[in-house]
């Protein structure tokens, strides 16, 4: 998706317009977390990003990647042995959580 305007922008306005466009279209980042027991231990098994109409996830070692129709489908590809739960955790940028 592109952003166009009918008005002429001076050089100082263009970077702000581009930054706004990037912020509006940025994907959301998530982690696939494996939790062992009931809050005994956890590890990040994969990282993903959700786009408008699809999602992408990769294992933390980068050896396996998946293109998905929605982020929750990533859980199908991370096995959960007995007493282990897999779930998504949405990442927030430190500036967003302040």
UniProtKB/TrEMBL annotation:
Protein name stated in the entry: Immunity protein 35
